[in-house]
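Continuing the series of single-chain predictions for the mutant panel. This is the parent chain; the variants come on the following pages.
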Amino acid sequence: MKKQTAVEWLMDRLPNIDKNDPYYEDIIQQAKAHEKLNIYMAYLEGHRKDFNSKDEALFLMYEYYTSTYGS
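Parent structure:
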């Protein structure tokens, strides 16, 4: 079972917001992108010594995110 990000959790609890409204859709996408970056950076910080190269770090961060939260 995939975990929800904090942004996804919040959106599920704000039923009165029209998620298809271009204004809110843009804000939601920005928030999701920011949160994804924060998750990547936290993973990188926690596993810094485990990486042999920048490419390996990027691959493993992406793999962690998608296995935990989905695409």
